[in-house]
Structures are given as structure tokens and as C-alpha cells.
Amino acid sequence: MIKLIVGTKGSGKTKTLIDMAKAAAETSKGNVVCVEKGDKLAREVPTSVRLINSDEYQVKGFANLYGFLAGILAGNYDITHLFVDGTFKIGKVGEVEKDYEGLAALVEKLSKVQSDAEIIFTVSCDVADLPITMKDFIVK
């Protein structure tokens, strides 16, 4: 299952993600993983959450992000939750700030991956800017 936490800058997306990661860490019978650009969440999420800095693996662009996330899921079948913070920052390639179609393609491909993990992304934009195919994934 894929979920999108959508909102403009400063709307509390990362706080929501942190709260969800904390709740998952308390209840999960498997592994909880959080991917972010940088390491700002190191003091925010419980130590039981596996925190991965995408910069350390030079992940840039949605195609690379898909391969990275699919590899994480393929390498560990015990992952129950996979959080991704700063999705557009990780997916950025070149001059395009927000590649909406690249995000839609990422979600489409990940929705076909054989995994029981819940995948949650923070997406910094207005809900109206997202392609119509993304609306069903938005967390209300």
C-alpha cells in the first residue's frame, strides 16, 4: 500500500511522517525503514527505525529512487513500513524542481512491487498540482 502525505512547505508533513514512524516502530512485528535526503531525522525517530540517508548512496532522480526502494524491499522481506521524506528533493534531476510525472511513474511502478510493506512519501506541493492518478494515494 502506498500513501502520500501532501502539503506545501511548513504544513507539517515531516512531523506527520515522524509520528507515523514512531507508531509503526511501536507496533510493527518487522522492520521499519525511513529514507531521507540528509540526516535531519536522526534525533526524531526511534533508534529501532532504520534511517537511510539517500545522499550517502547518491540517489538522484525518480528512476534511481525506484531502484533504491525496490532493492531495499527485495533485500528484506520483513519490512512492514517504508517511509520516504523529501520525495521531490531526492527525485530532483537538473533544473526541474518538481517532476510530477516522474513521481506518478514512481508510484505506479512501486504499486506493482510484490511487497506487503506500507510505503509512505512526503510530497511538498499543493494537492491540486498532482496528477489525477495520484489522488487515491493521498492521506487525508
Tell me what the structure shows.
The chain has 140 residues and is an alpha/beta fold. The chain contains 4 helices and 5 strands, in the order βαββαβααβ. It has helices at residues 13-27, 62-75, 87-91, 100-110; strands at 2-7, 31-36, 50-53, 79-85, 118-124. The protein has a 5-stranded parallel sheet with strand order 1-5-4-2-3. Helix 2 (62-75) runs parallel beside helix 4. The longest helix is centred in the N-terminal third of the chain and has 15 residues, at 13-27. It is globular, with a radius of gyration of 14 Å. It starts with a strand and ends in a 16-residue tail after the last strand.
Short description:
This protein is an alpha/beta fold and 140 residues long. 32% of the residues lie in helices and 21% in strands.
